[in-house]
Design goal:
CATH class: Alpha Beta
CATH superfamily: Response regulator
Number of helices: 4
Length: 132
């Protein structure tokens, strides 16, 4: 972990497929981030409201017809940057989130790293995202 560009950053990963969640968590840990995973919508919304995160990776479709839009709404209100991860590209996004960066599944650690670095504000990790 000599090259840990996300050292000190806290990530929320919202993903309903356990193998994918573990893979993304491992990628982020390799990059130096601290990671919390939510696999169900209610848990993801709770963590988005209460947790301290520098960024989030949101699977668009969470199974049982649930979508991560409610999580995105909370994160946007708290000014926490996020990206969507989906196998459907931009076609699966709600209109209000068409400008949010999207990772096309499957993706690699390098793609994840580049996109996260693009959305993160410069400087030190921030624990206060309450004011936009």
């Amino acid at each position: 972990m000599a090259n840990a560009p996300l050292r000190g950053r806290r990530a929320l990963v919202v993903e309903d497929e356990s193998l994918v969640a573990m893979l993304v968590e491992d990628m982020l840990l390799d990059l130096g981030a601290k990671v919390e995973v939510a696999m169900r919508l209610c848990e993801a919304v709770r963590q988005a409201r209460e947790g301290v995160f520098d960024f989030a990776i949101l699977d668009v479709n969470l199974g049982d017809g649930d979508r991560s839009d409610a999580v995105a709404d909370v994160l946007a209100a708290r000014c926490i940057p996020f990206v969507f991860a989906t196998g459907y590209g931009g076609r699966g996004l709600a209109a209000r989130y068409l400008a949010v960066p999207t990772l096309q599944k499957p993706y690699y650690q390098h793609d994840l790293e580049l996109l996260i670095e693009r959305i993160l504000p410069a400087g030190r990790p921030s624990a206060d995202h309450e004011a936009c």
